[in-house]
Design a protein that fits this description.
There is one protein chain. About 5% of the residues lie in helices and about 30% in strands. The protein has about 200 residues and is mainly β. The protein has a domain at about 155-190. The protein has a 5-stranded antiparallel sheet with strand order 1-2-9-4-7, with no helix packed on it. The chain is globular, with a radius of gyration of 18 Å. The chain starts with about 50 loop residues before the first strand and ends in an 18-residue tail after the last helix. It binds glyoxylic acid and manganese (II) ion. Glyoxylic acid binds near residues 55 and 133. Belongs to the germin family. This is Germin-like protein. Keywords: Apoplast, Disulfide bond, Manganese, Metal-binding, Secreted, Signal. It is found in: Secreted, Extracellular space, Apoplast.
Length: about 200
């Protein structure tokens, strides 16, 4: 979904004082082989949080060599019963392969049709750009998945955090009317430091 590159590579300068759509390029003589390799997805994420899951991102912010190339990946770890809660990537479609465990993977179309399947190691899925999706660990042990995106920075709108943990909070009146509830259970609001992406 990102624009095409205009050169072989453009290793991002993340702390530049100029601001562009993406990041400016490190001068070519300063580029090192290490700019094109990243070991951040080799480590298991700490899933001790309300959702029992953790996303580790290999996007342009953590792996600057991805700048202008229109691709990125995540690793998502799950405790038993853990969920990667319903979310949207505004700038990318997603594909993924289960590395370990058993996950219920689902998404909902713009016509509100729900597609889902229980997947095991080696199985793949695709989530069309912009659609609400989740993964739930339905196996006995831990699970993890590697996902890939056609954007260097797919972005994530995590519905429970967007709706119930925004700062400042969305007025209760809006949420109770929107969800047809007498009151809104705001338990996620108790974890203001929680940020998954
Ligand atoms: C999974 O849905 C992910 O965004 O990595
Ligand atoms: Mn996703």
């Amino acid at each position: 979904a990102d624009p095409d590159p205009l050169q072989d590579f453009c290793v991002a300068i993340l702390n530049s004082t100029i601001s562009v759509n993406g990041f400016p390029c490190k001068p070519v003589p300063k580029v090192k082989s290490d700019d094109f390799f990243f070991d951040g997805l080799s480590k298991e994420g700490n899933t001790t949080n309300v959702f029992g899951s953790l996303v580790t991102a290999a996007n342009v912010l953590t792996f600057p060599g991805l700048n202008t190339l229109g691709i990125s990946m995540n690793r998502v770890d799950f405790a038993p019963g853990g969920i990667n809660p319903p979310h949207i990537h505004p700038r990318a479609s997603e594909t993924g392969v289960i590395i370990k465990g058993k996950l219920l993977v689902g998404f909902v179309t713009t016509s509100n049709v729900f597609h889902s399947k229980v997947l095991k190691a080696g199985d793949m899925f695709v989530i069309p750009r912009g659609l609400v999706h989740f993964q739930l660990n339905v196996g006995k042990g831990k699970a993890h998945v590697i996902t890939a995106f056609n954007s260097q920075l797919p972005g994530a709108v995590v519905l429970p955090l967007t709706l119930f943990a925004s700062k400042p909070p969305i007025p209760n009146d809006v949420l109770t009317k929107a969800f047809q509830q007498q009151e809104v259970n705001v338990s996620v609001r108790d974890f203001p430091s929680l940020s998954l992406f």
